[in-house]
Each structure stands twice: as structure tokens, then as C-alpha cells.
């Protein structure tokens, strides 16, 4: 049992997926279930649809629930995630489906809404919202977003267009480009 201190944001490191797909992957690793508490989808649920360049806009930005949790700040053992080694007892994990910092506008708006709800519900400071790379110094870049930019956007009035992404945080998130255009234009 722990007390909630952080909301940790992750990437699936795949251009497709959903909570069911991640749950299957995590169970294959021997885990009891999906390690994340929330998954924010991008409209491409699986490899089959990705290979066929099929995009389902009505599923873009949806929140799919993983590990259960409630609205208090106490993380019981049944609520503990498996998403950030050494930090699972005191955090909630959100996973954005995407790769190399490429997320849809709808996903980013959903992330903003979810983080603002969590901040209000649990009375957390903006600094409590962190990227996986900020707690895992093993060369991780997850979630492939500059978290200082993300926090300034989530809670400080910075525009989404000012958020840098990618493994090296070198490009800017372009909220006007749809996921379909980003994923298949090469």
C-alpha cells in the first residue's frame, strides 16, 4: 500500500494498439494484467489495421481502463500498476498509443483533460505529472515528449504547438496534422 505521489505518462512505442493488446503483451511477460491504469488510443487498434492504413476516428483519443483504481490517494495492492519500476506503489500510469512522439491532436486533448481531472481530484501539483524517462534513467525517452513543455501546456497556458516531441525532443507536436497523415507520410 502506498500514497499517490505521481501520474506517470508513457508511450506504447507502437503506432497501433489498445488496452486489450497491451494486456496480452504484459500477460505474456508473466504479469497478472496490463501494467497501466489508463490507455489513450489513437484510432488504430491493431497491426492488421495499421498495415492496411485503416484509421477509426471515433476511437481516437478514447480512454481505455487498465488496472483499477479509485478516487482516493491510497494505492492498495490491487490498484498498484506495473509501469515504472520502483514507483508503482505511489503512482498511476497513463499510456499514449504512439511512437516517436507522434500522437494525435485528440489524444493530446484527452491527456490534458484526464490530467486536469486527476490534479483536481487528488490535489496534485503540476510537478507530480511526469514522464517515464524522469524516473527511469536507463536511457528511456518514454513518452517521447518534453515533459517540461507538457506540464507548461497542461497547467500553465502554453500552446500544444509549443510541446516538443520525439526521442530527442527535437520536433514540435503539430496539432493540425491528423494521425493518419503523420503515420503514413514518409
Main features:
single chain; 186 residues; alpha/beta; Lysozyme-like; 5-stranded mixed beta sheet; two-stranded antiparallel sheet; 26% helix; globular; disordered C terminus
Q: How would you describe what is shown here?
A:
The chain has 186 residues and is of the alpha/beta class. The protein has a single domain (2-184), classed as Peptidoglycan recognition protein-like (Lysozyme-like). The chain is built from five helices and nine strands, in the order E-E-H-E-H-E-E-E-H-E-H-E-E-H. The protein has helices at 19-28, 47-51, 105-122, 147-155, 179-184; strands at residues 2-3, 6-11, 38-42, 60-65, 74-75, 91-96, 129-131, 164-165, 171-172. The strands form three sheets. Strands 4-3-6-2-7 form a five-stranded mixed sheet, with helices on one face. It has a two-stranded antiparallel sheet with strand order 1-5. The chain has a two-stranded antiparallel sheet with strand order 8-9. The longest helix has 18 residues, at 105-122. It is globular, with a radius of gyration of 16 Å. It starts with a strand and ends with a helix. Mean pLDDT is 87; it is low at 175-186.
Amino acid at each position: 500500500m502506498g500514497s499517490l505521489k505521481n501520474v506517470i505518462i508513457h508511450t506504447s512505442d507502437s503506432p497501433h494498439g489498445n488496452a486489450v493488446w497491451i494486456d496480452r503483451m504484459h500477460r505474456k511477460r508473466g504479469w497478472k494484467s496490463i501494467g497501466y491504469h489508463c490507455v489513450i488510443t489513437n484510432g488504430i487498434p491493431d497491426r492488421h489495421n495499421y498495415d492496411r492504413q485503416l484509421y477509426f476516428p471515433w476511437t481516437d483519443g478514447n480512454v481505455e481502463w487498465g488496472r483499477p483504481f479509485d478516487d482516493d490517494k491510497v494505492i492498495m495492492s490491487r490498484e498498484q500498476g506495473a509501469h515504472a519500476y520502483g514507483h508503482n506503489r505511489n503512482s498511476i500510469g497513463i499510456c499514449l498509443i504512439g511512437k516517436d512522439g507522434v500522437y494525435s491532436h485528440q489524444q493530446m486533448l484527452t491527456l490534458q483533460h484526464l490530467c486536469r481531472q486527476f490534479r483536481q481530484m487528488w490535489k496534485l501539483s503540476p510537478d507530480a505529472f511526469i514522464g517515464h524517462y524522469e524516473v527511469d534513467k536507463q536511457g528511456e525517452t518514454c513518452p517521447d515528449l518534453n515533459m517540461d513543455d507538457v506540464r507548461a501546456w497542461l497547467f500553465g497556458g502554453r500552446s500544444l504547438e509549443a510541446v516538443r516531441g520525439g526521442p530527442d525532443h527535437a520536433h514540435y507536436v503539430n496539432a493540425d496534422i491528423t494521425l493518419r497523415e503523420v503515420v503514413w507520410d514518409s
